[in-house]
Specification:
0% strand
């Protein structure tokens, strides 16, 4: 009985899969090619009002400040962004940059140490008065 159920399931699956493929028929015909627009005469202008776009809107370069409620809503996201940006920079990136500079240039940092300036000449001794 089990093999009969399995055969029936295979035949049913084959009919369900192959049935729509055979019933689909040929492809529909291609649509006709669009006709080209008529050539413009010398007297017609290339400007047509129905094809033109409106001018762009003027945007105020100084928008009004956020309301206090929006500032309260936006503040946690702003603080989170600052903590992520500068926290990651100063805990990961900056130490790696300092280590890289130390390895590249050495302890002196690539700057030659100049010898100290010579001491100033001693002041002339005052002459004794008789």
């Amino acid at each position: 009985m089990k093999t009969l159920d399995r055969r029936a399931a295979v035949v049913l699956a084959a009919v369900l899969v192959a049935g729509p493929v055979g019933a689909a028929g040929p492809y529909p015909p291609y649509p006709p090619n669009p006709t080209p627009p008529p050539p413009q005469s010398a007297y017609q202008s290339s400007y047509s009002p129905q094809n033109s776009y409106p001018p762009p809107r003027v945007i105020d370069p100084n928008p009004p400040p956020l309301s206090p409620m929006m500032r309260v809503i936006y503040a946690p996201f702003y603080i989170t962004g600052l903590v992520l940006r500068y926290g990651i920079y100063y805990t990961l990136v900056a130490p790696i940059e300092v280590l890289n500079r130390a390895i590249t240039y050495g302890v002196q940092g690539g700057v030659e140490r100049q010898p100290p300036a010579p001491p100033p000449p001693p002041a002339p001794a005052p002459e004794p008065t008789p």
